Amino acid sequence: MRLCSITALLLCVLTPRAQAVVMASPRLISSAPGDDVVLRCHLEPPVDIQALTVEWSKPDLQPDPWDPLRRVQYVHVHRNGGEVTDMKLRSYAGRTELLTEQLRHGDVSLKILNVTLADAARYRCFIPKLKSAVREATVQLVVDANLLKTSTLTPREHEEQNMTDDSGGRLSTNVLIPVTVISLSVLLLIILIAGADIYRRQHKKQSSTDLHQPGREDQQRSGLLGRTGPAEQSSPERDLT
Q1: CA neighbor of 105 nearest in space, from 45, 187, 47, 170
Q2: For position 51, what pLDDT does the model report?
Q3: Contacts of 75 by beta carbon, 8 Å cutoff, 6+ apart
Q4: What is the share, in percent, of the chain residues with pLDDT greater than 70?
Q5: Domain boundaries, the chain
Q6: What residues contact 164, with CB distance under 8 A and at least 6 apart?
Q7: Under the phi-then-psi rule, with left for phi > 0, alpha for psi from -120 to 50, and beta for the rest, what region is 221?
Q8: In this predicted structure, which of 21-25, 44-48, 68-72, 173-177 has the lowest mean pLDDT?
């Protein structure tokens, strides 16, 4: 995000003041099947482009090999104040909307209704007749079946490569479960290592104490010799008398 903003700022500084650059922000959006999403794309600085053609396409989609003209089909084309449907991909029929009321402000964002797993792809926003060095931008849409359906998603609700949805607070279950298991395993391992270290230190201390103290039997034997020694030495004198 920060790199994208810095790049756009440099482009605005280095291009003539009359020119504007096309920007997509954010460039990565995650959604669940059935969501309505908005692919954000705008001009910086804002320029009224109501009279210009706006094309939304999937740049990684290959032309139909059975089409002799190798024509490119689009997700959405806006021209002369309305949508052009004769070049539209059938799978997007009735499911796309350009926010036309925002064109005067340079906003060419596209809304896709009821997204499916097949909609996951790169999308390109292109303004062919824009007098600028940067006339296009791309947005990556990720459709995850493990996410729960929510209301319309906009880029403001999604940060690039985020695990959570800031507005809904949802987490992908295939991420949450492994993270929880790994965290508990690491915690258990730390407890075991700490316990083993404490036991090793106490055992080592006890062994050192035993080496420096005489045994109980040796103490008893020394005490017995101390008591019997004088008596035994005095017995010969008693016999002489």
Answers
A1: 47
A2: 93
A3: 56, 57, 58, 88, 89, 92, 96, 110, 112, 123
A4: 64
A5: 2-170, 181-229
A6: 170, 171
A7: alpha
A8: 173-177
Three-class DSSP labels, 86-108: CCECHHHCCCEEECHHHHHHCEC
Q: Which CATH architecture has domain 2-170?
A: Sandwich (2.60)
Which tokens sit at 216?
A: 């109980």
Among residues 146, 122, 113, 136, which one has the least CA distance to residue 38? Answer: 113
Provide the pLDDT confidence category of residue 169 given band limits of 50, 70 and 90: very low
Whether the model clears a pTM of 0.85, i.e. scores above it, the answer is no
Question: Hunting for tokens 């849409």 — which residue is that?
Answer: 141
Note the Cα 33 to chain centre separation in Å: 19
Mean pLDDT over 200-204 rounds to: 82
Strands 76-79 and 54-57: antiparallel
